[in-house]
Amino acid sequence: MKNTDMEQNIKEVLVDEETIARTVKELGKQITEDYKGKELIVVGILKGAIMFLSDLVREVKIPLILDFMSVSSYGDSTQTSGAVRFLKDLEVSIEGKHVLIVEDIVDTGLTFNYLLDNLRSRKPASLKTCTFLDKPSRRKADVQVDYKGLEVPDEFVVGYGLDFAEEYRNLPYIAVLKPEVYENK
Ligand code: 5GP
Fold first, then answer.
1. Which residue among 105, 130, 148, 182 is best mutated to probe the pocket of ligand 1, counting the most ligand atoms within 8 A of its Cβ?
2. Which CATH architecture best describes the domain 17-154?
3. Looking at the DSSP assignment, which residues form a beta bridge with residue 98?
4. Which of 11, 69, 73, 143 most suits a substitution to test ligand 1, by most atoms within 8 Å of the C-beta?
5. Residue 83, SS3?
6. Number of neighbouring beta carbons within 10 Å of residue 29
7. Read out DSSP for 118-162?
8. Residue 123, Cα to own-chain centre: how many angstroms?
9. Is the CB–ligand 1 distance for residue 131 below 6 Å?
10. Active site annotation includes 89
11. How far apart are CA 175 and CA 20, in angstroms?
12. Is 104 in the pocket of ligand 1 (CB under 6 A)?
């Protein structure tokens, strides 16, 4: 893909940069208030959550530890297989700590479900979830989302960390691609 193709392939911008900044600021404020005086570990889920995570933690005004996990549920297509593959584990122990998992988007909820089960067994003091985007219409697993940025319709979105076949993560907004782009992959 040539660089110039990226913007030509966009059908619609769903969430612009200003809305992203406002939403992230608000979430950061809530998290700051809720975790005051607590030892917080923020767990980002690679790779999709990196943009959101880096903006979010700069809006959280208390000390925290940052760590990452990587799982794969989509491969190269836009359809979930239901199977979650574990690619990278945490480097720090979460036992007795307050843990906040940060995702880019919750769709079926299968990924969060898997991660929550896995992390719960490590005995954190508390375990909460935060997602930038939510597609509630597609939910298959009954997961609790504690901090939610914005709801989006049932469309495959890209940008602000979210990819299509590993591309488009660097778009500074959330967009939907033209149908032929998805079809031609
Ligand atoms: P779930 O397990 O909730 O179905 O899916 C979670 C993961 O699937 C997300 O972390 C994300 O990587 C991917 N995903 C779900 N919906 C979308 C979407 O609309 N666009 C992109 N790029 N990825 C998505």
1. 105
2. 3-Layer(aba) Sandwich (3.40)
3. 40, 126
4. 73
5. coil
6. 13
7. HHHTT--SEEEEEEEEE-GGG--S----SEEEEE--SS-EEBTTB
8. 23
9. no
10. no
11. 12
12. yes
CB 78 within 8 A of CB 108: no
How far apart, in Å, are the Cα atoms of 123 and each of 66, 99, 116? 18, 10, 11
> Could you tell me which residues come within 8 angstroms of residue 2 by beta carbon, excluding any fewer than 6 positions away?
none
**CA-to-CA distance for 53 and 43, rounded, in angstroms?**
9
Q: Using the mean position of ligand 1's atoms as its centre, give its distance from the Cα of residue 105 in Å.
A: 6
Count the neighbouring beta carbons within 10 Å of the beta carbon of residue 72: 14
Q: Do the beta carbons of residue 182 and residue 78 sit within 8 Å?
A: yes
pLDDT tens across the length of the chain (185 residues)? 665 678 899 999 999 999 999 999 999 999 999 999 999 999 999 999 999 999 999 999 999 999 999 987 655 556 565 567 789 999 999 999 999 999 999 999 988 898 999 999 999 999 999 999 999 998 899 899 999 999 999 999 999 999 999 999 999 999 999 999 988 76
Q: Which two tokens stand for residue 15?
A: 């969430």
